[in-house]
Write a structure and sequence with these properties.
- A two-stranded antiparallel sheet has the order 1-2.
- About 80% of the residues lie in helices and about 5% in strands.
- The longest helix has 25 residues.
- It is globular.
- It has five helices and two strands.
- It has one domain.
- By secondary structure, the protein is mainly alpha-helical.
- The model has no long low-confidence stretch (mean pLDDT about 85).
């Protein structure tokens, strides 16, 4: 479990560094990347824990029905919205991360969604 968290932390650090270099409206101090990545990992796990608890309470029926009706798009959209919330909260929790536009927030959330997808497949 600790090894998995360290890998996720390293991937989030790399993601934040890449976003800082590529996106013009995404600004983070280089010394703040580990702190912000730690915030991202913490908020990500807190939200996933709550979502898992809700999924357990409803026995996965609601999620299963919504994924069946929308042909799996519900899972993608729900994850994307959660990643938007994660980046928004990380932006608000630290003053060293600044996301200036909605487009940058959406691209950052999409990058986090893709990295989470890869991590789930590899780990």
């Amino acid at each position: 479990m600790l090894f998995k968290l360290l890998i996720i932390f390293a991937v989030f650090c790399a993601l934040l560094y890449i976003l800082n270099r590529v996106m013009p409206d995404f600004h983070i101090e280089l010394g703040a990347i580990p702190v912000t990545a730690l915030i991202l990992v913490g908020v990500n796990y807190a939200i996933l824990w709550v979502a898992g608890a809700l999924n357990f309470i409803t026995l996965g029926i609601v999620k299963g029905i919504l994924n069946f009706v929308t042909l799996g798009i519900f899972g993608l959209i729900a994850g994307f919205i959660l990643n938007i919330i994660i980046f928004y909260l990380a932006d608000r929790l630290t003053d060293r991360l600044t996301i200036k536009s909605l487009r940058t927030l959406l691209v950052s959330a999409a990058a986090l969604q893709f990295s989470n997808f890869l991590l789930r497949k590899l780990l």
